[in-house]
Amino acid sequence: MSEQRLAGKVALITGAGGAIGGAIARHFASHGAKICVGDINLEGAEQTVSDIGAGGGTAVACPLDVSDAAQAERAVQLAVEKFGNLHILINVAAGSSPDATVVDRSLEDWTREISINLTGCFLMSKYAIPAMKDSGGGAIINIASQYGQIGAPLRSGYCASKGGILQLTKVMAIDHADDNIRVNSISPGAIDTPRSLHRYGTPENANKIRGRFYLARRTGTVLEVAEGALYLASDAASFCTGTDLLIDGGFMAFKGTTDDLPKRD
């Protein structure tokens, strides 16, 4: 059996009924953490809990709209009530809206994206940090995006909210270093999820279309994101705080497509 890098830890993961959040939850559980699985889609959260239980892990589902302060506070309370402590918070929950310029985007769509993506990280951290302090410290990981660092056409709300997460991460790392709480972010590139399959049809088609923009010449997997989160949450990253981990297949390393790269004989 492989080393359990999170043995004795308690993690609260938002958006854990979805592809990336669920993968992180299952991976953390396989490394010994007890998991509070939060998601607005309770059926998805319960499926993740079932998967964890089938693998011999321990988890509890929690209905959670991260943009609702009362639900955010209750999720933290549930984690502590069920498992006694809280050491890790992973803010995965995210929302998006139809493509539009700022002129055409509705205030409702803008507010929804900011509320879920950015305010959700704020609220979850606001209530989790005191519990983490009581537990002796811990780690917060905010899931941002490559599009928090560069722009994307017609995605003002998404890019603004993800860019805000990067700055919020830095400020929280500064403010809570003396509480023994590390705060980092992860910026994924294109990841194989049901949403990607809905847009591109098959993983092969997604790789063909999107892979041209990545040095890895493919899209990433949810397990690759989960591995990055595991590192940042574990003691192996004890000297890592206030930074962002790009898991983007080289997307941010160059401008252009792989067609522009020098050809080798």
Q: What features would you describe in this structure?
A:
The protein has eight helices and seven strands; from the N terminus they run E-H-E-H-E-H-E-H-E-H-E-H-H-H-E. The chain is α/β, with parallel strands linked by helices and 265 residues long. It has one domain: NAD(P)-binding Rossmann-like Domain (Rossmann fold, 3-Layer(aba) Sandwich). Strands 3-2-1-4-5-6-7 form a seven-stranded parallel sheet, with helices on both faces. Helix 4 runs parallel beside helix 5.
Task: Give the arrangement of secondary structure elements.
Blueprint: E1 10-13, H1 19-30, E2 34-39, H2 42-54, E3 59-63, H3 69-83, E4 88-91, H4 107-134, E5 138-143, H5 156-175, E6 181-188, H6 194-200, H7 203-210, H8 222-233, E7 244-247
Parallel strand pairs: 1-2, 1-4, 2-3, 4-5, 5-6, 6-7
Helix pairs in contact: 1-2, 1-8, 3-4, 4-5, 6-7
The value of Rg in angstroms is 18 Å
Helix content: 40-55%
Shape: globular
Share in β-strands: 5-15%
Strand order of the largest sheet: 3-2-1-4-5-6-7
Strand-pairing-aware structural class: alpha/beta
CATH topology: Rossmann fold
**Overall CATH class:** Alpha Beta
Overall tally of domains: 1
Can you give the mean pLDDT? 95
**SSE string, helices as H and strands as E:** EHEHEHEHEHEHHHE
Tell me the name of the CATH homologous superfamily: NAD(P)-binding Rossmann-like Domain
Number of helices: 8
Poorly predicted runs: none
Q: How far is the N terminus from the C terminus?
A: 44 Å
The CATH architecture term is: 3-Layer(aba) Sandwich
Number of strands: 7
Comma- or semicolon-separated keywords:
single chain, 265 residues, alpha/beta, Rossmann fold, 7-stranded parallel sheet, 8 helices, 7 strands, 43% helix, globular
